[in-house]
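1st attempt posting a full record on here, be nice pls
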Amino acid sequence: MIGMLRKKKEKVVLENETKEKNKKKRKWFRISKLTILVILLDILAIDALIVINNDQFKSFWIPTAMTTMKHKYLAYTLYDEDTVNKVMSENYIEQTTEEINLDEIVIGTASEKTHYSNKYEQELFTRDPGNDVYKTIRIIEPRYKAWLIGIYDPADVELAVSSKLGRAGQSVNTLVKNNGGLVGINGGGFEDLDGWGNGSIPYGAIIKNGEKVWYHPGGDGGLIGFTADHKMYLTTKSAEEAIQDGMMDAVEFGPFLIVNGKTAKIHGDGGWGIAPRSVIAQRKDGVVLFLIIEGRLPGYSTGASMNDVIDVLLRYKAYNAANLDGGASSTMSIEGKLWNRPSAGGEYGGRTVSNAWIVTNKQGKPAQAPDKNNYK
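the predicted structure (as tokens):
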């Protein structure tokens, strides 16, 4: 009996010792996890400081934030005003001062082509089945996705203006439908206080059918449009002077990216950051290019710099080209459908804008709508 009690006592002592050891282990383990967490946070903080102070990151972050309407504060969240000003002064676009030479544009020569200078040009002139008016091209790059439309006859390109000009804008879809169009992209910029502009007050001048139909201070860049003989005309002249030169339709925006085949000089990323883009261009043979780059969509498409835009345009032999309003306004409509993924407003058919460049079919050529399922 005494032996059994002794064994029981020894067992209890052993169990207590085991429990005490386990407590110490658990306490050590808890301390270890906390220590590991602190170390990880320290590493992340150090990495963040390294990234924030990296010149390449600064050149990406600051211009991208500063070219948005609602998120400029993000630049100042990480950097002081002097740093922001310094980075912006190092990232800018130097446009050519050369006057555009419209004599270089010879419309109609595209149909005579039997040799293509590269695979992109061949892609452009390989017609979509049943469509002799325009070609739809999907562009997929590591950082962004884009849509390019090639319009074979520049006479089919015209400017559509909101019927509620001064009161409200309209979606590109609506502008295309209301003006008998097939394709459209957004045009010039507009007053967008706190990011809530509805396209009612366009910035700068608008020329329609050879008349100045609108002017509001704030236009940036120059006049982007087409003459009566369907040549793309880029100028910093006044609307009145441009009309005297033969301008028929135009919006005011910029910058001009290519003039007479010469590209603008991009310092850094141009000061425009990485964002959705809308661009209009013309080749020497008269073919017009509409380019929409999707962006601000994490995991799908980040957006493009101005250098990226110029690279795409040069692939397809753009001779003159200009940047249009980008960001959430970047919208493309094809055959009554919102075609791209805008960074905002997609659920409503795209943001309302002041005007759009559209493609009609004045000669009644075959223009079968593309099937989006055929594109990645």
